C-alpha cells in the first residue's frame, strides 16, 4: 500500500508541475491584460507540435526543440497581443472572442500541417529511477518536474527583482495607476503575452513525448487550467501554483483510488466548494470599492 | 477613346446572344450522355469521424473505400440489373458528435441523394436515427450496440463490436493457462461500456478472475500514469485495455512499460502498433493480443475468407497512405461495400429497401472472414448483425500475426447467459439504453 501511495505522489508531483506552468501563464496574461485567453490550450498544443516538427521529424536534439518551442510559442503570444488584444484592449469580451478565433486558426493549422491523428514522438529516453520497490520515476517525467520548478523560480525572481517584473506586477494590480506612473501598457502586455504563451508552449514541448500530441489536445488542458485559476484566485500567480498542486494531488489520488470519472467530478466540486466558501479563490482579494 | 470603350462594352443584346450560345453548347455537350445512358453513378454516404479523437476509426476507412471505389470503377462499375454504376463516395466529418452527424445525414440524404450511408455509429447514431427512419435510408454501423427492434434500416454487417472480443479471451485462456488475474480499463462512453461487459463475460467464461472493478476514465484524460498505477496495484497477469481509442492505447502501453508490467496485454485494437513497439520494446509487446489483422497476413488467403484480394488491398493501402497508417477500420467499410454491391446486384436495384431485403435473404451473408448469419435478437432485439468467425491476432517479433479464426456463435451458444448478465449489469441491453 505504501508503494501505491508513493507512486501516486510521484504521479501527482509530475501533474502539478506541468499544470502549474500552464496555469501560471494563463494567470499572467489575465492579470496584466485582463483578457481571458481561450487559445491558451492551443498554445500548449503548438509547443508540443514544435517538438514533433523539430525533434521527431527533423532529428534535432530534444532539449533544443523544447527551448525553440518556448521561443516560438512566445512569439505566437506576441503576435496575438499585437494583432488581437491590443486593438481590443478596451473590449475584454472582444478579446475573448478573438482568442477563440485564434484557437480555431491554430487547430486548423496543426491539422493541415500534421494531419488529424495523434503524432508519434520517439521517447528521448527510456531511463528511469526506481525510488523504492516498484515505485518508478522516468527521466522524462523528472525533466518536466525540474524544468517546471526552474522556470517558475526564474519567473518569481524576474517578477520580484527586475524593473520589468515590478512593472508587470504594477499593471496586474492597477493598470491605470501603473500607466500614470509612466509604465508602458503596450510594452508590459507584450512581455506578459510572450512569457505567458511561452510557459504554455514549454509545457506542451516538455510533455509532448508523454502524451502523443493531437490538434485537439488543448481542450482538456484549458478546462483544467480554468478550474485551477478559479480555485487559486483569478489573477493570482501564487494562487495558481498552490491550486495546481492541490488539484493535481486530488485528481491523481481520486483517479488511483476510485475512478477517473469520479476524479473529474471531484475537481469540479473542489472548484464549487471554493467558490461557495471564498468566492475570490484561495489567494484572491476582495475588490475595492 | 470614349467611343472605343463604348464599342468594347457588352450591350444587353450581345449578352443575351452570348448566353444563349453558351447554353446551347453546354446542352449539346450534356444531352448525348443522358440519351445513351452509358454511365450511371450511385452515391454512397460516408458519415464518420474524420477529425478528433475518434478519427482513427473513420479516416482510414474512407481511405480504404477510395481504393475499393477505384478498383470497382476501373473494372467498369457494379452491375445492377441492365445498368453499370460507377460508385462515388461522399464523405461528411461528424467529429463523433450526434448533432453534426444529424446535419451530415440530412445533407447526404436530401442534398446529395445517397443510396446508402456508412457510419461508425456509437454516440453519433442517435443523431441520425430519426432522419434515417423517416427517409427509410439503409445505414450501416460498426457498433451493433446501436441496434434495437426499432432500427429496422440499421445493419451491422461487418463488426459485431464488442462481441468478437470473446475470441481473444478464449484464445488467451487456451494458450496462456497460467494467466489467471485480469484488470480492465476503458473510457467512459458508448464504446467502452459494452466492451467492458463483453470482456467481463469472456473472462468469467474462461475462468479468469477480474481482480478489481473496471476502471473508467474520462475521454479527456491525457496523463495515464495514475490509471496505470491503479491497474497494476493488484499485480495482475492480464491487462485488458478494452476498446480504448488509439490515443489511449498508446500512452497506456507506454505507462505499463514504464511501470514495469510483465504480463499479457489484451485489447480490442492496436492501431498503429509499430509506434507502440517503438515507444516500448519488441520484448514488452511480444504476445499482445488484439482483434484486427494486417491484411498482408497469409492466413487471409485461406479458403472461406470472403474479402477479395486482401494482400493486394493492403499493399495498395500501404503504397497510397503508408504502412504505418493501416488501422482497424482500413478494410472494414470496404468490406461492407462488397456486401452492399453484392446485394444491389442480386436486387437489381440500388434503392435502400430493395438492397436490404436482398442482403438479408436466407438469413446468411458473406462476411469478410467467412460465411455468417444475421443474428442479434437476444442481445439487440433484432437480427441485423452479421456474425461468424473472427480472427485472434497476436504481436510476434514486432509484427501482427493471425493465430486463429474463432467462431463467435459457438461462444454465444455456450455462454450467452453470462453476456446478457454483464450487459444488463452495465445497462447496455437494447431495452436499457436511452
The main sheet of chain A orders its strands as 1-2
The gyration radius over C-alpha positions of chain A equals 19 Å
Number of alpha- plus pi-helical segments of chain B: 16
Total domains of chain B: 2
Q: What value does the Rg of chain B take, in angstroms?
A: 25 Å
Q: What oligomerization state is this entry in?
A: heterodimer
Please state the average pLDDT score of chain A: 91
Q: What is the terminal separation of chain A in angstroms? A: 52 Å
Span between termini of chain B: 77 Å
What's the overall geometry of chain A?
globular
Strand content of chain A: under 5%
Structural classification of chain B: alpha/beta
Largest interface, C-beta closer than 8 angstroms, per-chain residues: A-B, 41 and 34 residues
Biggest sheet details of chain A: 2 strands, antiparallel
SSE string of chain A: HHHHEEHHHHHHH
Keywords:
heterodimer; A: 289 residues; mainly alpha; two-stranded antiparallel ribbon; 11 helices; globular; B: 434 residues; alpha/beta; Rossmann fold; 2 domains; six-stranded mixed beta sheet; five-stranded parallel beta sheet; 17 strands
Give a brief rundown of this model:
With 289 residues, chain A is mainly alpha-helical.
Amino acid at each position: 500500500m505504501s508503494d501505491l501511495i508513493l507512486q501516486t505522489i510521484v504521479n501527482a508531483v509530475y501533474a502539478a508541475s506541468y499544470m502549474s506552468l500552464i496555469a501560471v501563464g494563463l494567470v499572467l496574461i489575465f492579470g496584466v491584460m485582463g483578457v481571458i485567453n481561450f487559445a491558451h490550450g492551443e498554445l500548449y498544443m503548438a509547443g508540443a507540435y514544435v517538438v514533433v516538427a523539430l525533434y521527431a521529424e527533423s532529428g534535432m536534439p530534444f532539449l533544443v526543440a523544447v527551448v525553440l518551442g518556448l521561443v516560438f510559442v512566445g512569439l505566437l503570444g506576441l503576435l496575438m497581443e499585437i494583432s488581437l488584444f491590443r486593438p481590443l484592449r478596451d473590449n475584454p469580451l472582444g478579446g475573448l472572442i478573438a482568442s477563440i478565433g485564434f484557437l480555431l486558426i491554430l487547430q486548423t493549422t496543426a491539422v493541415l500541417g500534421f494531419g488529424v491523428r495523434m503524432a508519434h514522438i520517439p521517447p528521448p529516453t527510456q531511463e528511469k529511477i526506481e525510488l523504492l520497490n516498484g515505485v518508478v520515476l522516468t527521466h522524462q517525467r523528472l525533466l518536466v518536474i525540474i524544468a517546471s520548478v526552474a522556470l517558475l523560480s526564474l519567473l518569481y525572481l524576474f517578477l520580484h527583482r527586475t524593473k520589468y517584473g515590478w512593472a508587470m506586477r504594477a499593471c496586474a494590480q492597477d493598470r491605470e495607476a501603473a500607466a500614470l506612473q509612466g509604465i508602458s501598457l503596450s510594452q508590459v502586455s507584450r512581455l506578459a503575452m510572450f512569457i505567458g504563451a511561452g510557459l504554455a508552449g514549454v509545457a506542451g514541448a516538455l510533455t509532448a513525448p508523454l502524451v502523443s500530441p493531437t490538434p485537439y489536445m488543448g481542450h482538456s488542458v484549458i478546462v483544467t487550467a480554468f478550474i485551477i485559476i478559479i480555485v487559486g484566485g483569478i489573477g493570482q500567480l501564487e494562487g495558481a501554483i498552490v491550486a495546481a498542486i492541490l488539484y493535481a494531488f486530488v485528481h491523481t489520488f481520486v483517479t488511483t483510488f476510485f475512478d477517473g470519472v469520479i476524479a473529474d467530478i471531484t475537481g469540479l466540486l473542489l472548484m464549487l466548494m471554493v467558490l461557495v466558501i471564498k468566492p475570490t479563490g484561495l489567494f484572491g482579494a476582495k475588490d475595492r470599492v | 477613346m470614349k467611343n472605343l470603350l463604348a464599342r468594347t462594352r457588352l450591350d444587353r443584346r450581345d449578352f443575351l446572344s452570348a448566353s444563349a450560345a453558351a447554353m446551347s453548347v453546354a446542352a449539346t455537350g450534356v444531352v448525348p450522355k443522358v440519351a445513351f445512358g452509358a454511365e450511371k453513378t450511385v452515391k454512397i454516404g460516408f458519415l464518420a469521424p474524420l477529425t478528433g479523437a475518434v478519427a482513427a476509426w473513420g479516416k482510414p476507412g474512407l481511405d480504404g473505400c477510395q481504393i475499393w471505389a477505384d478498383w470497382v470503377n476501373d473494372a467498369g462499375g457494379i452491375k445492377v440489373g441492365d445498368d453499370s454504376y460507377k460508385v462515388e463516395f461522399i464523405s461528411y466529418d461528424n467529429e463523433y458528435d450526434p448533432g453534426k452527424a444529424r446535419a451530415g445525414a440530412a445533407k447526404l440524404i436530401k442534398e446529395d441523394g445517397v443510396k446508402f450511408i456508412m457510419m461508425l455509429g456509437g454516440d453519433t447514431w442517435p443523431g441520425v436515427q430519426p432522419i434515417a427512419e423517416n427517409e427509410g435510408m439503409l445505414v450501416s454501423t460498426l457498433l451493433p450496440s446501436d441496434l434495437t427492434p426499432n432500427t429496422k434500416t440499421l445493419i451491422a454487417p461487418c463488426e459485431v463490436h464488442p462481441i468478437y472480443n470473446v475470441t481473444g479471451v478464449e484464445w488467451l485462456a487456451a494458450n496462456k493457462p497460467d494467466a489467471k488475474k485480469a484488470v480492465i480499463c476503458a473510457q467512459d462512453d458508448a464504446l467502452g461500456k459494452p466492451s467492458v461487459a463483453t470482456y467481463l463475460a469472456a473472462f468469467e467464461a474462461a475462468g479468469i478472475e477480474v481482480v478489481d472493478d473496471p476502471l473508467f476514465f474520462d475521454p479527456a484524460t491525457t496523463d495515464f500514469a495514475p490509471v496505470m498505477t491503479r491497474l497494476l496495484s493488484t499485480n495482475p497477469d492480464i491487462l485488458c485495455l478494452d476498446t480504448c481509442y488509439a490515443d489511449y492505447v498508446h500512452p497506456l502501453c507506454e505507462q505499463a512499460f514504464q511501470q514495469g508490467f510483465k504480463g499479457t496485454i489484451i485489447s480490442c485494437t492496436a492501431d498503429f502498433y509499430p509506434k507502440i513497439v517503438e515507444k516500448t520494446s519488441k520484448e514488452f509487446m511480444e504476445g499482445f493480443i488484439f482483434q484486427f489483422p494486417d491484411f498482408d497476413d497469409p492466413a487471409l488467403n485461406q479458403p472461406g475468407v470472403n474479402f477479395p484480394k486482401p494482400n493486394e488491398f493492403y499493399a495498395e493501402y500501404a503504397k497510397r497512405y503508408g504502412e504505418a497508417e493501416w488501422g482497424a477500420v482500413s478494410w472494414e467499410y470496404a468490406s461492407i461495400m462488397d456486401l452492399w454491391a453484392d446485394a444491389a446486384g442480386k436486387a437489381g436495384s440500388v434503392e435502400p429497401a430493395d438492397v436490404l431485403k436482398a442482403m438479408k435473404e436466407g438469413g446468411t451473408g458473406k462476411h469478410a472472414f467467412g460465411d455468417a448469419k444475421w443474428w442479434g435478437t437476444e442481445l439487440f432485439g433484432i437480427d441485423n448483425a452479421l456474425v461468424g468467425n473472427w480472427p485472434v491476432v497476436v504481436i510476434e517479433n514486432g509484427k501482427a500475426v493471425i493465430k486463429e479464426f474463432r467462431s463467435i456463435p459457438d461462444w454465444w451458444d455456450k455462454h450467452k447467459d453470462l453476456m446478457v448478465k454483464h450487459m444488463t449489469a452495465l445497462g447496455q441491453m437494447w431495452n436499457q439504453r436511452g
